[in-house]
Amino acid sequence: MLRKLISKIKQSFKSGAKPAAAKPAPSHAPKHPKPAAKTGHPHHDKRPAAPRPTHQSSGRHPATHAHPRPSGHGHQTPAPHAPRPTAHAQVPKPLPEVPKMDTAFTALGLGDRLAFAVQEKGYETPTPIQAQAIPVVLAGRDVIGSAQTGTGKTAAFSLPILQMLGGHGAIRCLVLEPTRELALQVEESFQNYAKFTDLRTTVIYGGVGYGKQREDLARGMDILVATPGRLLDYMEQGEIKLDQVQVLVLDEVDRMLDMGFLPDVKRIVQKVAKNRQTLFFTATLPPEIEQLAAWALRDPFKIAVSRERSTAETITHAFYPVVQAQKFDLLAQLLEETQYNSVIIFSRTKSGADYIASRLKQAGHTCAVMHADRSQPERVDALKGFKSGKYEVLVATDLAARGLDIADVSHVINFDVPENPEDYVHRIGRTGRAQKTGDAFTLVTEETWRDARSIERFIGQSIEWKKLPGFNYTYSGIFDGGGMTGTALPTGATAKPASRLTRGGRR
Q1: pTM (2 decimals)?
Q2: Each residue of 358-393: pLDDT tens digit?
Q3: Please, are residues 314 and 154 in contact by the beta-carbon 8 Å criterion?
Q4: Residue 295: helix, strand or coil by DSSP?
Q5: Which segments within 123-183 are labelled E, that is strand?
Q6: In the chain, what is the straight-line distance between the N-terminal and C-terminal CA atoms, in Å?
Q7: Within 10 Å of residue 285's Cβ, how many Cβ atoms?
Q8: 155 and 118 in contact (C-beta within 8 Å)?
């Protein structure tokens, strides 16, 4: 047997038989999913590509934007300059099916996947800034946007950005926010609207460890939301490069100025790809911000929805005069006699916020606190708990007054009158959002009634001065000379609807 086997082997070599060719090694590159059926509105699937604006006013950048053309379904093939997927890129999952959509949002150029996500959030009609900004952003224009708080600004830039982006493996969109809370909130909005796409987002901010953030970065993302300080840390360590960024969003720029972040912002902008699209949102345009805008943007389209000093028409206001010693008792009585969904109470000081929260907890209220001395995990828990309904009351300093988007806040109570009238506008902007109604109560003492009058002059309207029926007031001169009898409209002011002081008992 052995001889026969050896003979056969020798014979095979003599006959010149070649060994079988080796099979090619399997590729580990992720397979591209089959193209999804077009889900965009039929009208928009056939529309011509938006013209590319030219910019001749600056020699810093190429003449045209190198942005991908918006598709009709919110996901498209990578742009020609898109990098190859990194080793950490994940195999794309099949996209969920969505119905055909014919809404006011598809009419603006958004695809079915985004329009369906918007509908799931309960929004039917674009706000004015959304109606103006979305088509302009889709056309590739740089934008300077200004709108009063609560008008849907985040969706005005996040929705068209999601529409335009395609491909994976590098940061395609960078959004800069001044605070951790805003960064978390904006990233959450991107996630909600990208629910039916395969675009990935992440957020980085200071005050927490680097471990999880590094893991998120290693997995790759399309959209990065960041605070300036933590982003610079990663850039200096060589862990983040911004040369593939197609869209840069500078949000709440006036607040970045107030917090001293403009030098950091300039350092970051210098590292971003020069053929980018830049979206710039600010409440005010002082000289420093105008200079930044002129340097960072090209031929921007300007959008201004309303005056900075105005408040939402859906908010009613009331001033409650009271002596200092009775402020908390009046607050407690207001909460007991007012029907509300959720309440934000503002204090001028951190110690005051802690005091109010402690007293409210003793009175049986579920209560969270937000101010600068709270740790980042505590602040995240407070915000998440308040949004979810775990806490019915959020006590905060002005840290929480600007930019935070919290649904269904029915009441804002100023335990302390803000020193700056503009802060009043930002505070009460936490209610009456997205065209919903809301109430703003302010407790006014003899020491602060002049600040209250300044607010009336600033917003150009008279605010009703009220006493809570049944409350055992200690007499104060403010009832006669400060507020209750001196209610003439300021020059040029307009009257507001009567405040809904109490709407049934506490629920």
Answers
A1: 0.58
A2: 999 999 999 999 887 888 788 889 988 998 889 999
A3: no
A4: helix
A5: 143-146, 173-176
A6: 95
A7: 18
A8: yes
CB 393 within 8 A of CB 345: yes
Residue 43's pLDDT band (cuts 50, 70, 90): very low
Which residue bears the tokens 């206001």?
A: 317
Q: Please report the pLDDT score of residue 45 as a whole number.
A: 34
C-alpha span between 313 and 311 (Å, rounded): 6
Determine how many CB atoms are found less than 10 A away from the CB of residue 131.
18
DSSP 222-275: SEEEE-HHHHHHHHHTTS---TT--EEEE-SHHHHHHTT-HHHHHHHHHHS-TT
Q: What is the pLDDT of residues 255-275, one digit of tens each?
A: 898 888 999 999 999 999 999
- Cβ-contact 149, 412 below 8 angstroms: no
* Ranges for all domains in the chain classified under CATH 3.40.50.300: 62-304, 315-479
- Comparing 105-109, 162-166, 249-253, the range with the smallest average pLDDT is 162-166
* Class of 62-304 in CATH: alpha beta
- Residue 371 in contact with residue 352, Cβ under 8 Å? no
**Hey, what amino acid is at 269?**
V
CATH of domain 315-479: 3.40.50.300
